Amino acid sequence: MTETKARRRAGRPRGFDTDAVLDKAVRLFWQRGYEATSMADLVAETGVAAASLYAAFDNKAGLFAAVIERYAATFSVHLYAPINDPALSTYEAVEGLLERAASSFSEPGTPAGCFMYSAAAAVSPASAAIECLLRDKRIAAEALLIERLQRGAAQGELAANTDPAVLGKFINTVMEGMSVQARDGATINELLSIATMALDRWPAAI
Amino acid sequence: MTETKARRRAGRPRGFDTDAVLDKAVRLFWQRGYEATSMADLVAETGVAAASLYAAFDNKAGLFAAVIERYAATFSVHLYAPINDPALSTYEAVEGLLERAASSFSEPGTPAGCFMYSAAAAVSPASAAIECLLRDKRIAAEALLIERLQRGAAQGELAANTDPAVLGKFINTVMEGMSVQARDGATINELLSIATMALDRWPAAI
DNA sequence: CACGATATGGAACGATCGATAAATAATATC
DNA sequence: GATATTATTTATCGATCGTTCCATATCGTG
């Protein structure tokens, strides 16, 4: 996250706010996916001319990469906050994660489900690199969850016979499924009841 | 499923096997999704000229609709067989369903995951009808699962405080998540351990 | 104020998209 | 075998795809 100040030489200043443009691009890619979102769509939605978008992000793939980071910095950070909260027990952390998934995946103001899961579910071979970008994010997020569970296991918060890697994969799988459910119109209450059932029979110690 | 024999009038016979063409089209749409699969791709893969495909299926959407039915008649039927097997207990039926999901989603000879979940996860507004076709299939499959659970509940196979609708949505959510996991490279053993953990939540009577 | 540097708006690029027209080939029926 | 009907081949359609060129606009610096 260290960013060299990029000492400006001169020239006309950028006429649009990068983050504001990315926010609008996030919505488009989130809703329609990578392939079904055209540069013309992005120009229409953001009000920024194509040449300016290319000057700022190189190409469509570069714009999408910036969109991924923007989504991660805004939505994902909030979703995964309980995992990084040292005040929460392991169970509370996972409970908070699933509750936030239920609410954010069904949030009326944004497209349903999770951007990371649906924005590039299936793409052409030419866009394989795009699919890989999101896959890496998904795998990294899962690894973060598993690490949290491993810390909990090390502190005796899980039953001795519990494999944190399997439990983490299970929790992550439920979240991914909840995203599909939300896309298909599941309400927040339905998602919460799914989360509750996943948390049922939590392998607590003792 | 009733099909009028479509009494042929005359004319040159079709030069290709419809099901064979659909099988190849299934693979393409399964792997790349609806938007990222072009008619040129389909022509190259099937060896059938574009005009012939249009004569047989009207347009790309019509071909995709036929592909959905072909997938349902081949892969989905096998996946959901345990649900319709009267010899199995409710638990065994769900267990069989998840086991088949684990193996078929990671089957080396086919694209990873489930066609129904990933072939049109996010599409353009112009293709909204396509997305709806698959969503209806997903919802119908979930309803089928819930009906099976309701029958089990009626026969006392579930704990009295269990809501079959919630349990069915949970099982279905895990399956949808398993599809994403398979897409991201999960092995059959990893998927099976996820399924096992989901079944650990099983609300048996007594 | 002049100059270099960067951003913008508008027009346009070649490629590919889904889809079709027209001519020809191959069958069933009479 | 003549005719009606359907399928195939080939070429091509207008629209849209991602991308770029070019002239102009607007800044920091000398």
TrEMBL record, chains A, B:
One of its GO terms (molecular function) is DNA binding. InterPro entries: DNA-bd_HTH_TetR-type_CS, Homeodomain-like_sf, HTH_TetR, Tet_transcr_reg_TetR-rel_C_sf, TetR_C. The keyword Transcription applies. Residues 38-57 bind DNA. Pfam families: TetR_C_13 (PF16925), TetR_N (PF00440). Keywords: DNA-binding, Transcription, Transcription regulation. Residues 15-75 form the HTH tetR-type domain. This is AcrR family transcriptional regulator.
